[in-house]
Design goal:
Layout lengths: L1 E4 L8 E4 L4 E4 L5 E4 L7 E4 L2 H21 L20
Antiparallel strand pairs: 1-2, 3-4, 4-5
Length: 88
């Protein structure tokens, strides 16, 4: 789902998209970000904020590529995260 932004100084109309993103802190104190709805879209950052910025860039480039190739942009999916117990 998205909404459209109009900018007077721009001739192009930008559509905004929103996708769920998962950001995890790894063992090396970096942050790993992925968008489960868009397979193959992932990145990392030294800080949480950097990971957020990087995943926004990745998603933007991915959407631009889909548009250029005239491919359908996936709709936002509801993602459920939960903890499960396992025995091993």
């Amino acid at each position: 789902m998205g909404f459209i932004c109009y900018y007077k100084h721009m001739k192009k109309v930008l559509k905004m998209y929103e996708f769920p993103v998962l950001i995890e802190k790894d063992s090396g104190n970096s942050f790993f970000a992925t968008a489960p709805t868009l397979q193959g879209c992932y990145t990392s950052g030294k800080t949480f904020a950097e990971a957020v910025k990087n995943i926004q860039d990745v998603l933007s480039l991915y959407i631009q590529d889909l548009k250029e190739d005239r491919m359908k942009i996936p709709k936002r999916k509801t993602i459920s995260f939960m903890s499960v117990e396992v025995s091993a």
